[in-house]
Specification:
Radius of gyration: 23 Å
Strand content: 15-25%
Shape: globular
Structural class: alpha/beta
Length: about 500
């Protein structure tokens, strides 16, 4: 058994964790909306057509914010199509995903769903085919109390009180050639600046997220962030990051090391933001919104076949990745990385929430179940709120195709207001257990409240409607406190949540 050591102190504080770090995303894509959150006629559907069984699963995740309505979809979306009487809403061709959008679920319906799911809306505006005028109008519609054209339109459409949307995305992935209204950094930065200025004139309380580059390996990356921030730094509050990982080579050690890439990505964007801040002599510090992240690669070939067969149909079953156990381990490692950067990463949205590269899956007319990746997100959302601490972890490491010195044991820690402590830890080793010895200096007397373990002997194991708990967490991991020190066995290929409380 290999050994790893952890040193932790209250003075090793990184920063307060914004609860929005555990957000998610619903796009008008695939079965995320139709057949996902919304299915009139389903045995569990409420009076608005929303599936109660899905709402219950979302509530269990404690998702604080949900990004909506896209994604690529938003770059060709007219927000006015989604309000007013359903029978009058137009059916539109969606050029992002080659389907037909019926607008049965629109802004009012989604805001209602978010309230039922005990979450808030993070709304994206179209800066692809539209611009600042439409952006300021939707803010007026959603947030102005009344007495103006668009706020009175909202009231006529059944919502007397403002929707109170506080977090707004200024477009989506605008450096991507696949994007409708694709722009250069300077073009986007100017539009984002003017849109943001006008949106905040309508409602000064809102927060704005500007589009970072679509991916770390884009040719535009770096120069895009710097160029667009030079134009709109003063107007925005966050820069977005998007990152997805896959295991196309089927090498688990390489795959589980991808969180090292994530760490580099975050650090680089932070550096660029701060470089622009320095150049502008700005007092404001721009933070990061990692508003798309996940594993995504399983469904790519299937999607191509669906488009060949059913292009332009409604709610095609697109991007329906079936996640396995090793995917859950990488998701856990990514959450650990976010916590390590909690001073700058304030928002993160797992993309997406239901059916589309999602922790929750449904069958039309049937059941709902948790995919493997549901569990680490749920654990982090429940037990990862408080002050992020930086543990000093030492132990064996391995080399892989893209990285050297990948630690077998990686960990993050969160201090809670009640004096308790949670340690999230992953063991990347394929075949060797680890013993984690923790020096918890400065915490006083602690005892183990619970040690949760997620493990399966088969890294390709999945959950299904028939076997929804094939990959599921269990308590009783065996962590203990001896002589004021933490002794925690970490099984090979395992995600661990060690909850400590005052003795």
């Amino acid at each position: 058994m290999m050994k790893a050591k952890l040193i932790l102190d209250r003075d090793f504080a990184i920063g307060e964790i914004d609860p929005r770090l555990y957000g998610s995303f619903i796009e008008h894509l695939g079965r995320a909306v139709y057949g996902g959150i919304y299915e009139p006629g389903h045995p569990t559907a409420d009076e608005n057509g929303f599936r109660r069984d899905v709402i219950d699963m979302v509530r269990r995740l404690r998702v604080p914010v949900v990004r909506y309505p896209g994604g690529n979809f938003v770059s060709g979306f007219n927000w006015e199509d989604s309000v007013g009487p359903r029978e009058g809403r137009p059916k539109r061709l969606d050029l992002a995903w080659f389907t037909t959008e019926t607008n049965e679920v629109g802004l009012h319906e989604f805001a209602r769903w978010a309230r039922e799911a005990q979450s808030e809306v993070m709304y994206a505006v179209n800066l692809g085919t539209r611009g600042p005028d439409a952006a300021r109008n939707i803010v007026e519609y959603a947030n102005h109390p009344g007495g103006s054209f668009y706020s009175d339109m909202r009231i006529r459409n059944g919502e007397k009180d403002p929707l109170g949307i506080r977090l707004w995305c200024l477009g989506n992935e605008m450096d991507g050639p696949w994007q409708m209204g694709h722009k250069t950094a300077q073009e986007y930065g100017r539009v984002a600046c003017e849109a943001g200025k006008m949106m905040k004139w309508v409602d000064p309380t809102i927060e704005l997220v500007a589009c970072g580059s679509s991916a770390y390996d884009m040719l535009t990356f770096g120069g895009w962030e710097y160029g667009m921030l030079e134009e709109c730094y003063d107007q925005i509050d966050y820069v977005s990051l998007h990152r997805y990982y896959g295991n196309r080579t089927n090498r688990t050690p390489d795959f589980l090391a991808r969180s090292m890439d994530l760490d580099d990505f975050i650090s680089t964007v932070v550096s660029i933001c701060d470089a622009v801040r320095g150049k502008k002599h700005a007092k404001k510090r721009v933070h990061l919104s990692f508003d798309e992240w996940n594993v995504w690669y399983h469904s790519n070939e299937q999607d191509q076949e669906i488009w060949k067969r059913d292009k332009w149909n409604r709610a095609l079953p697109l991007l329906e990745d079936v996640y396995n156990f090793e995917d859950a381990l990488l998701v856990g490692a990514m959450l650990i990385t976010f916590l390590r950067h909690a001073d700058r990463v304030k928002i993160a949205c797992m993309a997406q929430l239901v059916n589309v590269i999602a922790p929750i899956m449904t069958r039309n007319g049937g059941g709902v179940w948790a995919q493997t990746i549901y569990w680490p997100l749920m654990h982090a959302s429940h037990f990862g709120r408080g002050t992020a601490l930086r543990p000093v972890v030492t132990g064996p490491a391995y080399d892989c195709t893209d990285y050297e010195r990948v630690p077998y044991v990686d960990a993050a820690a969160v201090a809670h207001e009640d004096g308790g402590l949670t340690i999230f830890a992953i063991n990347r080793s394929m075949d060797e257990d680890a013993l984690l010895e923790g020096d918890l200096r400065g915490f006083g007397g602690l005892k183990v409240r619970e040690h949760i373990v997620l493990h399966h002997d088969d890294v390709k194991a999945v959950n299904t409607e028939e076997a929804p708990e094939n990959v599921a967490p269990r308590s009783g991991g065996g962590a203990k406190i001896e002589g004021g020190r933490l002794i925690a066995p970490l099984g090979s290929l395992s995600w661990n949540v060690i909850r400590l409380e005052k003795a």
